[in-house]
């Protein structure tokens, strides 16, 4: 079933709000039995489907932890509706703020489900006020709890003024107790007023008659939902089945069908095009997730935007420029897959074993060749060095990391050419640790995490004139002879290396000049202080001596190597450290603490810019002071701070700190 007979939604919320338990209860009420629904935090999104009121629902359970925000954002891209799951016993946390922002960025309408109202200290009013303050969301209750805390029995449907009371895995609809009628009617009036504002005709009628029919109320509320002006609120306690049936009804009544969501903007070879979610149109599918299953291989999770897919066929991937053949089109029920005969717009499907398609790609009819851009994903904020434990692990780690990267586009893998370390970058400490756990559990690769080595540099502060070095070696037969004369100068920071030859006469044949430059470059690879590369120097090769028999490229390379080393001792060598450029976005109230922390890290603030209730701080700080900055900023801001970092330039390390770095490097060499 497609068109108006289908709903596709994503469950969003902070960790511990009860999203996975809500999925379990929804499936149970719909008569679906699913194995493998685990308790505890969700760290990887899963798709499900069920039947409700003759409709087909596709839903995605997403991680609440912002270590996995990339996964959540991509799943939100595949949905038409977001259900925000709030915890009535806990304040709204930054995790919910971030996932709600992702939904709003994509223009998704939202419903709210306030969970855990059966628990001690649960408070619906406080939760709604917190949502209003932190999310700036207009919440409109369409259901209300029947009882409080452990005495919670069910929920009141404010449209019908009836009580929904669960019993034996079913829900009974009963008449309201007399003592709650007045309260329910007052809440219903508030709901009707919001419904009237959804449409001019309804508002005019309501102002004249002070009454709307139930179908008119639903029509007005739905207009408000689709426009993003309101977010209807359902309430309950999922572990006791309370309120979940009313939420499922609300999805049917107020959630958009694929055609009600409207057009999807796509990129084409000529510019842009609007994709209509019609089953008669050519097929278009977005890929929102990839899994590498040890047994089934690559699984590509897609959302059908338009067209009708059959159980096998071919689709064009315009990003990769290839035609992908598929068979065994399936739908997911958590970790279980079942084959289907066809899929219509709005369906969440799984393609087994596509050859090159990746997360974020668009598949379409070959004649269309379109791409629907995925949402911008969060940038990595923390980096570790990954050290395989054994030679076997070292051999296997490359392919295993590539598979992890296929599954997780927010994971960044690189190799530092200088330190020869494998670097793994992610959205947080947990993100990195869970990735390393996958390496071990899924691919049998054991590796240790360490802070990455800092790529220090060495340079000089003053010039050295007329530095001379003679290389002479006689071992019987042909010997080695070369003499070079250098002037050495410091260059401005970031200039690198300059080699200048100003020879006069024929003391040194010009064919030896490349060997001299090569010898200097080799000497620059390890500086005199701590063995780091030497940068920002200029060499003037102005004179030397040669022997018509014993001189060679090797002799001049050796002479140049030692002449440069000798010159460095006279040039006041110093240690340089990489300085990073930071853009930090934080709430206004913690800006002072964040600036103080930057200063404590030997950083400097370059400027500030207001962004609503938040401040954007632009700063610079040494890389060595930022290795754990993601964790520290999270602690300083209660998780509400974000930052981006990139390399800026090199600066001289203060002498006390430089001495520690030098001593550590020398100890490492000696050991």
UniProtKB/TrEMBL annotation:
GO terms for biological process: ribosome disassembly. Transmembrane segments: none annotated. Residues 4-259 form the Tr-type G domain. GO terms for molecular function: GTP binding; GTPase activity; translation elongation factor activity. Pfam families: EF-G_D2, EFG_C, EFG_III, EFG_IV, GTP_EFTU. Keywords: Elongation factor, GTP-binding, Nucleotide-binding, Protein biosynthesis. Catalyzes the GTP-dependent ribosomal translocation step during translation elongation. During this step, the ribosome changes from the pre-translocational (PRE) to the post-translocational (POST) state as the newly formed A-site-bound peptidyl-tRNA and P-site-bound deacylated tRNA move to the P and E sites, respectively. Catalyzes the coordinated movement of the two tRNA molecules, the mRNA and conformational changes in the ribosome. This is Elongation factor G. It comes from Thermosulfurimonas dismutans.
């Amino acid at each position: 079933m497609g068109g108006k007979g289908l709903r596709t939604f994503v469950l969003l919320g902070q960790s511990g709000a009860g999203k996975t338990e809500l999925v379990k209860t929804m499936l149970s009420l719909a008569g679906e039995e699913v194995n493998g629904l685990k308790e505890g935090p969700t760290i990887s999104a899963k798709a499900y489907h069920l039947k409700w009121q003759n409709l087909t629902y596709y839903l995605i359970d997403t991680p609440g932890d912002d270590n996995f925000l990339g996964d959540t954002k991509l799943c939100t891209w595949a949905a038409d509706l977001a259900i925000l799951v709030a915890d009535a016993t806990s304040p709204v946390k930054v995790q919910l703020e971030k996932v709600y922002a992702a939904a709003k960025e994509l223009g998704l309408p939202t419903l709210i489900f306030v969970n855990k109202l059966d628990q001690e200290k649960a408070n619906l009013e406080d939760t709604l006020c917190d949502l209003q303050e932190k999310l700036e969301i207009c919440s409109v209750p369409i259901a209300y709890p029947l009882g409080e805390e452990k005495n919670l029995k069910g929920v009141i449907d404010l449209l019908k003024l009836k009580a929904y009371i669960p019993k034996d895995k079913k829900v009974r609809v009963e008449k309201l107790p007399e003592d709650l009628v007045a309260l329910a009617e007052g809440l219903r009036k508030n709901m009707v007023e919001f419904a009237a504002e959804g449409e001019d005709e309804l508002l005019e009628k309501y102002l004249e008659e002070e009454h709307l029919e139930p179908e008119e109320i639903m029509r007005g509320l739905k207009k408000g939902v689709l426009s993003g002006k309101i977010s209807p609120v359902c309430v309950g306690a999922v572990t006791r089945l309370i309120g979940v049936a009313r939420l499922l009804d609300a999805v049917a009544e107020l959630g958009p069908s694929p055609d009600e969501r409207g057009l999807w903007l796509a990129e084409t070879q000529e510019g842009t095009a609007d994709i209509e979610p019609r089953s008669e149109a050519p097929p278009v599918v977005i890929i929102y997730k990839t899994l590498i299953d040890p047994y089934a291989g690559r699984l590509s999770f897609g959302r059908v935007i338009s067209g009708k897919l059959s159980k096998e066929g071919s689709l064009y991937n315009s990003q990769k420029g290839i035609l992908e053949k598929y068979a065994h089109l399936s739908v997911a029920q958590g970790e279980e897959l079942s084959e289907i005969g066809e899929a219509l717009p709005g369906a969440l499907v799984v393609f087994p074993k596509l050859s090159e398609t990746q997360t974020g790609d668009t598949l379409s009819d070959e004649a269309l060749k379109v791409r629907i851009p995925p949402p911008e994903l969060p940038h990595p904020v923390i980096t570790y060095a990954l050290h395989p434990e054994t030679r076997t692990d070292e051999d296997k780690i490359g392919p295993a990391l590539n598979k992890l990267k296929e599954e997780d586009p927010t994971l960044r893998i690189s190799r530092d050419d200088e330190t020869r370390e494998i670097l793994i970058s992610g959205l947080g400490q947990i993100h990195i640790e869970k990735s390393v756990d996958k390496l071990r559990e899924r691919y049998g690769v054991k590796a240790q995490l360490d802070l990455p080595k800092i790529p220090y540099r060495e340079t000089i502060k003053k010039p050295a004139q007329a530095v001379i070095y003679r290389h002479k070696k006689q071992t019987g037969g042909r010997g080695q002879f070369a003499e070079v004369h250098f002037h050495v100068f410091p260059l401005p920071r970031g200039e690198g290396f300059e080699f200048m030859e100003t020879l006069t006469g024929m003391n040194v044949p010009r064919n030896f000049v490349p060997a001299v430059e090569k010898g200097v470059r080799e000497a620059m690879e390890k500086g005199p202080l701590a063995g780091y590369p030497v940068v920002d120097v200029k060499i003037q090769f102005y004179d030397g001596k040669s022997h018509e028999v014993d001189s060679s490229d090797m002799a001049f390379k050796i002479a140049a190597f030692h002449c440069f080393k000798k010159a460095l001792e006279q040039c006041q060598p110093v240690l340089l450290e990489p300085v990073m450029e930071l853009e930090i976005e934080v709430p206004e109230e913690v800006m002072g603490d964040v600036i103080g922390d930057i200063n404590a890290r030997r950083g400097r603030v370059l400027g500030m810019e207001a962004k609503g209730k938040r401040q954007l701080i632009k700063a610079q700080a040494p890389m060595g002071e930022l290795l754990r900055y993601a964790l520290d900023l999270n602690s300083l801001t209660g998780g509400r701070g974000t930052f981006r970092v990139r390399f800026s330039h090199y600066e001289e390390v203060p002498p006390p700190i430089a001495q520690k770095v030098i001593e550590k490097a020398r100890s490492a060499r000696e050991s």
